[in-house]
């Protein structure tokens, strides 16, 4: 991570510090910082993230040079999500990060706001009104081509079904409709991403996406009506990536999702605290076997 050096006399209200909206190229910078922090973003995340809310990405600058960033994605008028909150190392602990944070929070206004934060930062998020809902656990494993398909579950390419039908299913599993993001998520280059849907007869029972990251591949979302369907989607996604590293971010409060990771010999490597400023959205966590992203919810 590179940035301009922090002068010893810098103070939080110094006029040389400013916050502005990101341009698309700035999102690439933010994701490169995220990679440096070890967050392992997807190779094509920038376009999809920006599509979710082009007005909700902000960069903090010193004399016009980027030194920090935050995303504050507004999903309609009722829900928003904070992510990509990063200050360059030389600039941390000096008050500039709080100015950037306040800018993002002000943009989201009175919405119910969610975030996935590192566990150690929970006290700081509580000061801004966030309350712990549950923990998400990142599992890491190695894909195998030896996984048998699951009987009774039909797997098809997500691009082969009407978008509105997929959006309806996704909306039931998320806090609200997110059509712009979903279109962009499905439009990732097929060389780096794959999206599948599970059917039982004519009934849509599950939806999952896997994407290539700086290290390995992440599955997200993995939504399914039951463990059998989730297992079928998981196996279909990883079976074409033998020997590759795979990550799955699982709500700890869904024991079936934890069981899915464990039965595929995945190991817990990281945890986040899912927190909200109001009551947790009415999301059926029993059907969430994999979080879409820690950055956007």
From TrEMBL:
Q: Which PROSITE patterns match?
A: GNAT
InterPro entries for the chain: Acyl/Acetyltrans_Enzymes (IPR052729), Acyl_CoA_acyltransferase (IPR016181), GNAT_dom (IPR000182), YitH/HolE_GNAT (IPR041496)
Transmembrane feature ranges: none
**By its UniProt entry, which Gene3D superfamilies does this protein fall under?**
3.40.630.30, 3.40.630.90
Record domain N-acetyltransferase: where: 17-162
Q: Name one GO molecular function term.
A: acyltransferase activity, transferring groups other than amino-acyl groups
Under CDD domains, the record lists:
NAT_SF
Domain of life of the native organism: Bacteria
Q: What is this protein called?
A: N-acetyltransferase GCN5
Report the source organism. Caballeronia pedi
What are the top taxonomic ranks of the organism?
A: Bacteria, Pseudomonadati, Pseudomonadota, Betaproteobacteria, Burkholderiales
